[in-house]
Amino acid sequence: QDAIDRKEKRSETFKTAVHGLETDTPVLKTEELGRRAPQWVRDNLVTMCMRCKEPFNAITRRRHHCRACGYVVCARCSDYKAELQYDGNRPNRVCQECFIFLTGHTVLEDREGKHKGILEKGAAEVSSRSLLCSSLQLLDKNGKGGTRGWFVIPQDDPLVLYIYAAPQDVRAHTSIPLLGYQVRDMPQSESRHLFQLAQSRQVFTFVADTEELKQRWMKAMARSAAGITHPEEEEEDADE
């Protein structure tokens, strides 16, 4: 029964093995794994291995694609070979999960028992069920430089802002609890659409690509900062 449960669990993960934030991206079904070439996740959409979550770098941890599911993975996580039917049953580089699924073999390392931590939710998964998600820039304290990333307020965790380095990363690098913050509008500076989150001495300054996107983020953050977790709660407050 344990083997059956594990098999079914892997099958569910592969039903959405290749999917992006775009709704028109084709989904690779479980029964098609190895039989049909996957659509590869683009390199520039991830900054870390989509399996072990370790960040990529140009020297010691380079990007590779699993030829079965299309995920971007590191060398360690793709150090497996499996015969793929769509490539004439020739051995191809695949990730550990695909290797287990396609061959039925087991490996010594098993991370299935690990629970997902607060930051270990994939960006694509969270974004598909979000109150708001988009690219923003978070400025440093002096306001001269900053980091561009993918920002998400999830539906199932609406009081927290998750920050990813890229929209397909499998782990957020930080989060900001929004409850109690004040949202401040700032005048446009050098065609930059600025706004802030402030609480006591803690201030975060963001740059949106457009004024319309800025206003959407300010509204969403203000709602979360006030503890409003559902739109209907905001409507009730307005009626009162």
TrEMBL record:
Q: Which CDD domains match?
A: FYVE_FGD1_2_4 (cd15741), PH2_FGD1-4 (cd13236)
Q: Tell me the compartments it is located in.
A: Cytoplasm, Cytoskeleton
PANTHER family hit by this protein: FACIOGENITAL DYSPLASIA PROTEIN, FYVE, RHOGEF AND PH DOMAIN-CONTAINING PROTEIN 2
* UniProt keywords, alphabetically: Cytoplasm, Cytoskeleton, Guanine-nucleotide releasing factor, Metal-binding, Phosphoprotein, Repeat, Zinc, Zinc-finger
Cellular component, GO, one term: cytoplasm
- PROSITE patterns from the xrefs? PH_DOMAIN, ZF_FYVE
Whether S-adenosyl-L-methionine counts among this entry's keywords is no
Quote the protein name from its UniProt record. FGD2 protein
Q: Name one GO molecular function term.
A: zinc ion binding
Please report the stretch or stretches of sequence annotated as the PH domain. Answer: 129-226
- Chief localization class? cytoplasm
| One GO BP | cytoskeleton organization
FYVE-type domain location: 43-103
Does Kinase count among this protein's keywords?
no
